[in-house]
């Protein structure tokens, strides 16, 4: 194995690199590249993966699986740049812990350890930072994850937004679990663990210039306990994913594409609280595209759906779990929804993002 | 194990939290809190650790050690906010990979996998981003580490500085190694692997408003191969650390404090290139406090020093390895240096940082 840069292969020839077609609309980064939709996917596919070359493994997914010694580990990272730092129901600190815990949980892993890396803006008050750091500590204790290593950098005033946090986590994958988006298959029932659209609406409700009255609080929560309860039923969970940026719509589109199945939803079954529906009406948003931070989507065989649903509903974070659709042979790689009026609409992958800086 | 926030213990009572004395000089974050010196240490000790409470394990060091199944893993993270993004000898992409590889190597680990998380500023050119991403890929291939998971966020134009990168890595610790700062002990020889002060001078030489002519290029490099060669000698390496932010002075002060030993250096043995000495003279800096990104400090028993030095000098990244001091019983927790004129001076832990945004 070479260990000096001089021995490295060149990933792509940068002299002849031309920004590829799907990225060409703008020669620059735009907010949508961070939205978790089609533009994010294009940035990964057409810029990061070619540039990383043979150093990149697999699809650079939400969570990587690592076989080492006699254990199977999940490994995941996320940065958090939510604005504002505090919002009804949580802070950037809760999100940073729960976001990574959930990415690990979606591979069937129990979180073990986490790193926390802060990028602080010069001039940020120590009181504000202490409040965020305490939210990190409280959320980590709640999730049973140890904070074992970290880093702090400071950038000049005016650059940054107070606090950016990156977390990376390692989890131990349950031996009984083989949970991957590729395993979603025709006939599978699609379950959502509870109300959708809540986190995005909570953050927007207190954003500068947009304040509106709502009682909606972020759903930020660690989901590994709920996942463990689902695995404990003995059911074979095919796929799990938490619908964060880009919401349920983006997540289901990704799974449909990865697993090469169609997904057919029924709008009448979507658990959307009235406050979320009202706020989305006000802002011109579709709740299906709004971020969640404490919900999961599960794919299981129809014969096992009842027992999984029962276990989910017995857990505080899955009390409102419900079936919202099925995997179908028709329209592979696409998501459709039966409307309340009896029609059918395509549920597209969002291009950029409806709500920037939501996590 | 509780898994809902409601069940969590409270780490500290924020209502009654008062910014503690060592942080009280400024109620806000200043650049020095990111410098890797005394202010960084105070921020960790008096703000992060109390706020994290029982979720924090050990000292939140550069690299954590994790026993899982039948393997011992190292786990580390770093964010990179260097300004400018490219400098003689490297880019933020090289630093981001090599920095985390080196943190793992300092625990005697071979890097296995790495996460890459980008925080991009709206308006950054895709060409610039592609160049940085290619540097990440090339450095990862050179270090033999796989990029297995990632994240991309975008922040508004004017916030951020083009590209911030966080990497986290997992490495497999060599079974023969027990390398910890605590093991540095009286009598140990202190070895540096090569020329010091190079990276900091290279970055400063091209910083806006400070351009000066120099041929110094950053020493950014992955050090795990050099460490493997040292372990392969069969010598018992007591402690290793890469002297990045805060330079050799900050790193040795940390080890002296952690291991409760004194460290006595001899200035005449410091390998400082003439160009670094000249540039530091111009900028009013002490090379001992300037960051390195491809050097390590090793602590070994005097009986094993020769064989370790021979192995280091046979490796391209250790060709100029040399002994610069010893651990002594006198002045525990302190670092001293014999000067060229025969006197002795205290080598203090820097307070903030001489050179901000250097990595």
From TrEMBL, chains A, B:
> Domain named PurM-like N-terminal: which ranges?
61-173
Show the CDD domains listed in the entry. Answer: HypE (cd02197)
Q: Which GO terms describe its biological process?
A: protein maturation
InterPro entries recorded for this chain? HypE (IPR011854), PurM-like_C_dom (IPR010918), PurM-like_C_sf (IPR036676), PurM-like_N (IPR016188), PurM-like_N_sf (IPR036921)
Q: Where is the PurM-like C-terminal domain?
A: 186-331
Family statement drawn from the similarity comment of this UniProt entry = Belongs to the HypE family.
The protein here is known as Hydrogenase expression/formation protein HypE
Tell me the classification of the organism that encodes this protein: Bacteria, Bacillati, Actinomycetota, Actinomycetes, Mycobacteriales
């Amino acid at each position: 194995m070479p260990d000096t840069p001089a021995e490295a292969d060149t990933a792509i020839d940068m002299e002849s690199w031309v920004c590829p077609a799907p990225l060409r609309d703008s020669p620059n980064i735009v907010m949508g590249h961070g939205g978790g939709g089609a533009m994010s996917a294009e940035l990964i596919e057409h810029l990061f993966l070619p540039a990383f070359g043979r150093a990149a493994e697999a699809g650079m997914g939400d969570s990587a699986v690592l076989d080492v010694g006699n254990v199977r580990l999940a490994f995941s990272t996320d940065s958090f740049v939510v604005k504002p730092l505090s919002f009804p129901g949580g802070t950037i600190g809760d999100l940073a812990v729960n976001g990574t815990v959930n990415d690990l949980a979606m591979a069937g892993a129990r979180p073990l350890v986490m790193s926390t890396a802060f990028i602080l803006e010069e001039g940020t008050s120590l009181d504000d930072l202490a409040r965020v750091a305490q939210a990190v500590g409280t959320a980590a204790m709640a999730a049973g994850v140890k904070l074992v290593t970290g880093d702090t950098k400071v950038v000049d005033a005016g650059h940054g937004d107070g606090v950016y946090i990156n977390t990376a986590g390692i989890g131990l994958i349950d031996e009984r679990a083989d949970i991957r988006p590729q395993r979603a298959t025709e006939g599978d029932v699609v379950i959502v663990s509870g109300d959708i659209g809540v986190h995005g609406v909570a953050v927007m409700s207190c954003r500068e210039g947009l304040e509106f009255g709502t009682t909606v609080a972020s759903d930020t929560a660690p989901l590994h306990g709920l996942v463990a309860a689902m695995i404990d039923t003995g059911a074979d969970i095919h796929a799990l994913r938490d619908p964060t940026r880009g919401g349920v719509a983006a997540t289901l589109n990704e799974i449909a594409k990865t697993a090469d199945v169609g997904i057919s939803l029924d709008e009448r079954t979507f658990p959307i609280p009235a406050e979320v529906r009202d706020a989305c009406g006000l802002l011109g948003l579709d709740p299906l595209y709004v971020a969640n931070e404490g919900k999961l989507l599960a794919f299981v065989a129809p014969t096992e759906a009842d027992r999984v649903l029962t276990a989910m509903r017995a857990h505080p974070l899955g009390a409102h779990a419900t079936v919202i659709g099925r995997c179908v042979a028709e329209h592979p790689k696409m998501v459709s929804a039966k409307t309340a009026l009896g029609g059918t609409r395509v549920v597209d992958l969002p291009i950029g993002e409806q709500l920037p800086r939501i996590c």
